[in-house]
Specification:
The protein is of the alpha/beta class. It has two domains: about 120 residues, no CATH class; about 290 residues, 3-Layer(aba) Sandwich (Aminopeptidase), CATH 3.40.630. The protein has twelve helices and ten strands. The strands form two sheets. The chain has an eight-stranded mixed beta sheet with strand order 3-4-6-5-7-10-8-9, with helices on both faces. Helix 1 packs across helix 2. It is globular and about 50 Å long.
């Protein structure tokens, strides 16, 4: 009966009367996800918006004691009895100088109980409830253009409206949208997040396809792979296939202004004020700093390597042991032979992974996913599959690291190869 939910509220109000600050209600860990019409250049769904088709719960009680549905406010025997019981409970609490444990537990049950399993009312689909039959078709027997990329991301959001959100991060220098997809099957409003991005360089379309393959791989594999399902239940995944849509359209490494976006980020040797000359890097910066990703993968193409910070110096990071172990596991998952600190591949200045690691301690990596920038379509599906497996391996390593399950490795000094600095060094000669 709905009136039974009033008991703990009345108990707290009566007990706290005249006593100053009372017990603060706990924040609910569940989140309502629903559709939100396109606004300010963004479309899809945002956290906090309930789907139109989801029924309202008549038993939901606000903290002010009012129901979210019209109710009979007449006081009957049940409510009178509840009120007396609440007064008795409050009297006991006053005798002890505060709210009793029973009242506290009742309050917790009221606040947390109705939302404990949000999937029951269709608000949030947990990772183990994902239906593969709803997945939009995406094949990698051809390369996709920008419109097809946007259409696919929107289709995923439409197919899974309770866990997938389509957004636009902004527009490029030439006004092209920079879309991304959030997959959040954690039933949390602000879970730890993972960032995957492609096409910093517009002439590396394999990197675009690698990012585009992530939603299908995660959602499809979640039904058969317990480790993928666990990661989906732990992290929100942000997938941004087109960092540089202008360069993608022009088939150029640089953006429309002829600038290399992946040399435009700040790093310990260069401030924000002296960086971010490109609008595209500015947009990535905004997203990076607003979310603060736990781990990230930047896809590139032109080699087969797993690389990590630092790019600008031979000095190891404080997480060098993690990076070596994670790099090894990831390279094995991708059947790659090379995994190393990025500087050892070639020194550069202003890469995304240095910025993300420096500013937010994001465990970021560069994946060079194919030996050529645009492998033949006959090889493309294998490239995308390998990148997806590597991404799962990297995120799993980051998760193991957070839980103390990853054994750090030391990169043997003899295995570190050095490339000489050019004179003057401008950091533009490397594939990444």
């Amino acid at each position: 009966m709905i009136v039974r939910y009033y008991l703990p509220v009345l108990a707290v109000l009566l007990a706290g009367c005249g006593q100053g600050a009372g017990r603060a209600p706990r924040q609910d860990s569940a989140v309502d996800l629903g559709r939100l019409a396109r606004a300010d250049g963004q479309s899809g769904i945002d956290a906090g918006a309930r789907p139109d088709s989801a029924p309202d719960r008549s038993s939901t009680i606000d903290m002010d004691g009012s129901s979210d549905q019209p109710a009979d406010r007449s006081i009957g025997p049940d409510l009178a009895a509840d009120t007396k019981a609440a007064a008795d409970l409050a009297a006991d609490a006053s005798a002890d100088g505060g709210v009793t444990d029973a009242a506290s537990a009742a309050m917790d049950a009221m606040v947390d109980g109705p939302e404990a399993d949000a999937s029951d009312d269709g608000v949030c689909a947990l990772a183990d409830n994902i239906s593969v039959a709803k997945l939009p078709a995406i094949g990698f027997s051809t390369y996709h253009n920008q419109q097809q990329i946007e259409d696919y991301l929107q289709a995923v959001a439409s197919a899974f409206p309770t866990i997938a959100t389509y957004k636009v991060n902004g527009q490029s220098a030439q006004g092209r949208d920079i879309p991304y997809l959030i997959i959040n099957a954690t039933c949390q409003a602000s879970p730890p997040a993972i960032f995957t991005n492609g096409t910093h360089h517009g002439d590396e379309p394999a990197s675009t396809e690698a990012a585009l393959g992530i939603p299908d791989y995660l959602l499809r594999r979640s039904t058969t792979d317990a480790s993928v399902r666990s990661l989906l239940g732990t992290y929100a995944f942000y997938v941004l296939p087109l960092v540089n849509p202008d360069g993608f359209a022009l088939d150029t490494r640089e953006n429309a202004a002829g600038l290399d976006i992946n040399r435009d980020y700040s790093y310990p040797g260069r401030s924000d004020a002296d960086s971010f000359k490109t609008v595209e890097a500015q947009l990535v910066k905004s997203l990076q700093e607003s979310v603060g990703f736990r781990a990230a993968v930047a896809y590139h193409s032109g080699a087969q390597e797993v690389l990590w910070p630092w790019c600008y110096t031979a000095d190891a990071t404080v997480d060098g042991g993690f990076f070596a172990a994670a790099g090894q596991q990831t390279a094995q998952a991708m059947s790659f032979a090379i995994y190393q600190q990025s500087y050892d591949d070639y020194p550069t200045q202003g890469e995304y992974i240095d910025f993300a690691y420096w500013k937010n301690h994001t465990l970021a990596a560069t994946f060079e996913v194919s030996t050529v920038k645009a492998p033949s379509v006959a090889l493309l599906a294998g490239v995308v599959d390998g990148a997806s497996k590597g991404t799962v391996a990297w995120v799993q390593a980051a998760n193991d690291h957070a839980n103390g399950r990853l054994h750090a490795l030391s990169a043997p000094a003899a295995a570190r190869r050095r490339f000489p600095l050019t004179a003057p060094f401008d950091g533009t000669n490397r594939l990444e």
